[in-house]
Amino acid sequence: MALSFGKRIFKGISILSVRDIGVRLLELLRIILITRFFTLEEFGLYGLAVATPSLLSLFVMPQFSAVVQRFYPEYRQKDDRKAKQFIFTSFLYTTVNAAVVLGVAYAAGEFIAANYYQKPELLPYLQTGLLLLLVQPITEVMNTVLMSLEKFKDILWADFLQSTSSLLGVVAIWHGEAMCTP
């Protein structure tokens, strides 16, 4: 049985509201962990390590999700095979583009840490944070496609997975630091 337009909108808004609340709670937990267990200097290094990939992500996916959002529904209406090809090409382009930027940034990580930030101890944080360059754009394309398909429950789980992996990344960095600290 197909839902009416109003019921589909209500269902979508309800699921996305649950997603927003859950993601915000996971982000709050991440912030609590960071402020509780990181020293002031580690917190600053972590902030730089997360800010750098955010800046570099501008080179990874300039408005690409807008292209997916604009053209995917048209491909889907015309031909299912072309729609699948469009999605495959979108993921491939995003992944290759992100991998190239990640590789350049990773190779330049030591230079960025030692010369730009003048903090050589930033390098391990920076290298871990650069993995966001690969995860973030792929998640963005996936969420755009799922949104156009009105797959709200899948968006909910994808965002929870991304937030949980971010939280686990903080725990891994802190645990690595705790293991290295005498």
Could you walk me through the main structural features you see in this protein, from its secondary elements to its overall organization?
The protein is an all-alpha fold. Helix content is 87%, strand content 0%. The chain is built from eight helices and no strands. It has helices at 5-37, 40-60, 64-78, 80-107, 109-116, 123-129, 132-148, 152-180. The chain is flat. The N and C termini lie far apart (63 Å).
Class from secondary-structure proportions? mainly alpha
Query: Which value, in Å, is the CA radius of gyration?
Result: 19 Å
Fraction of helical residues: over 70%
Largest beta-sheet details? none
Q: Treating each run of at least 4 consecutive H or I residues as one helix, how many helices?
A: 8
Q: Give the distance, in angstroms, between the N- and C-terminal Cα atoms.
A: 63 Å
Query: What is the element string, with H for helices and E for strands?
Result: HHHHHHHH
Show unreliable segments. 178-182
Task: Give the overall pLDDT as a whole number.
Answer: 77
The general outline is: flat
